[in-house]
Amino acid sequence: MLNCKQATQMLSEKLDRPLSTKEKLNLGVHTSMCSSCRQFGKQMQELRFISKRYTKGENESNK
């Protein structure tokens, strides 16, 4: 089973590359039991979404 440090690393990697089936399973088990890591994952996704929106807005205003 993953510890929180490994889980947060994997949650970060999940945004940049597809996880293997084993990684998804291990991460799913950990986040189902760990509300802190579950919250971290949600926050990472939200930050990614906000960054993309900001970058798009910046590119559109430069035209």
From TrEMBL:
Residues 4-38 form the Putative zinc-finger domain. It comes from the Bacteria. This is Zf-HC2 domain-containing protein. It comes from Marinomonas primoryensis.
